[in-house]
């Protein structure tokens, strides 16, 4: 019985030489074979190094690649979305999950409602962002050790509010993706998927990090909004100890400590 199901097993049948598609007296001899020998290889010239699969691997995700979208490969998002002429290869598993548009950027909201961001209080924005960052960091650490948490400060539709979390293990990322998908945050459903981005050095805008980006919030590379190093160290100590680890503190205590510090 064939392992492909249905009918009898094709193995063991006598070969009909008269119907051999290679012609002649059977096998590969006789007529003109589809397989070329050494003489034909000589006519074609020497084989070029770096061709075939090696060439495709080298150009994958670059501007030379006419099949796969380089922006989706590097950044996990593309401004053309489903209308892009190149493929967006979504991974089945990854160390990184993307929660699209989770962070409600006050600048983006002000532009949408008032046409400009002049009314935005930057100090308030930063304080609210710290609360958001801590809340999501604490939640993500429940599923495993988080190597990186990157939140986009971009204003473009495909990047605004995107939250990228890279875990130490793919299994932890899978647990987080499964747990978060379909949940609500601030009254909005979370859309959580695996991201191809595992090296954020290629994804982030170097000019923005240096304070020299001229494209502003509509740059196609990540403008990553950060918290202070001291706060990041404290969050690592409190929450980021891997699955099953005992937490060293709570968000409510952190907020009380921050309020006391401001009063002083």
Report what the structure shows:
With 264 residues, this protein is an alpha+beta fold. It has ten helices and seven strands. 35% of the residues lie in helices and 10% in strands. It has a five-stranded antiparallel sheet, covered by helices on one side. A two-stranded antiparallel sheet has the order 4-5. It has a domain at 96-263: 2-Layer Sandwich (Alpha-Beta Plaits).
Summarize the structure.
The model is unreliable at 1-15, 17-49 and 55-62 (pLDDT under 50). The chain has helices at residues 38-44, 52-59, 70-75, 106-114, 122-140, 170-180, 200-203, 206-209, 229-239, 251-263, and strands at residues 96-99, 146-152, 163-167, 184-185, 188-189, 192-195, 224-225. It is α+β, with helices and mostly antiparallel strands.
Helices and strands in order:
Elements lengths: L37 H7 L7 H8 L10 H6 L20 E4 L6 H9 L7 H19 L5 E7 L10 E5 L2 H11 L3 E2 L2 E2 L2 E4 L4 H4 L2 H4 L14 E2 L3 H11 L11 H13 L1
Antiparallel strand pairs: 1-3, 1-6, 2-3, 2-7, 4-5
